[in-house]
Design a protein that fits this description.
Oligomer: homodimer
CATH class of the largest domain in chain A: Mainly Alpha
Helix content of chain A: 25-40%
Order of helices and strands of chain A: HHHEEEEEH
CATH topology of the largest domain in chain A: Arc Repressor Mutant, subunit A
Largest interface: A-B, 34 and 34 residues
Structural class of chain A: alpha+beta
Number of domains of chain A: 2
Strand order of the largest sheet of chain A: 4-3-5
CATH architecture of the largest domain in chain A: Orthogonal Bundle
DNA sequence: AATAAATTGATAATGATTATCACTATCAAT
DNA sequence: ATTGATAGTGATAATCATTATCAATTTATT
């Protein structure tokens, strides 16, 4: 692992807000000001390929997630914030998958709506 | 509804393969060769806002879906094909949503893996 | 230390989507 | 029928996120 890759990895692992690539870049720069956006993307993709982090595709661009394994997300359609939704049993939805079950490797579950702080602004 | 908007709408409604914007453009051109990509995007977004069609965000760019209401999708990580997954009970995953249930409006569920035809190529 | 291999930073290129803007189609009111 | 107001279009430029390129630097290997 190169120094830059370690910095990128640590940035994701210490983020609980599902950062975009740009947000990862800013956090990396706090610790290594010379680090470049291309390097961030390169290492994010490498870490994904290695299975060290995850990518989630939502409105406003892809985001990166330190949490492995299947878990649900919520995204606000007003401010685009993304957070984990715990306590949701995802195993139940796999039951109807008999026909294609052999080829299913993962499930993305994203709830959409308006977050509490955007609701409070009304 | 303008002629172009009708053409865009019909293109989506007659597509069961969750087309990208480019695929929608090609299908519109078959019936109205002068139609423009910007017009397609404009009308796709208008139709989404009106709730006439849906957008799903997956690898390889956004796709457009004639089917309203919550239903699950499958995307192949090899060829990127997207298709509906029927027979999956999605109501069960809403059970753990008490905390944020009031603000949840929709759920995206996308299974990921390798489709049957890509499996057969090995 | 010398060489090879891998990684970086800088930047150009790409691809998808959106914004702009001059022009055209629509349509109600004259 | 003609006008004027407005909405919508086509063409294209601009934007934004992401990827590709490549010379320079760092790291590993002999």
């Amino acid at each position: 692992m190169s120094k830059q890759k370690t910095v990128v990895y640590n940035a994701v692992m210490s983020s609980s807000d599902h950062p975009t690539a740009d947000m990862v870049l800013s956090r990396c720069k706090e610790v290594m000001p010379s680090i470049n956006l291309a390097t961030v993307y390169r290492n994010l993709n490498a870490l994904i390929k290695e299975g060290a982090i995850q990518k989630i595709m939502v409105d406003g661009g892809d985001r990166f997630d330190k949490t492995l394994g299947t878990h649900a997300h919520f995204q606000c359609r007003v401010c685009n914030v993304v957070f984990d939704v715990d306590g949701v049993d995802l195993s139940c939805i796999k039951e109807g998958l008999n026909g294609i079950a052999n080829q299913v490797e993962d499930v993305d579950v994203t709830f959409k709506g308006v977050c509490q702080s955007c609701l409070n602004l009304n």
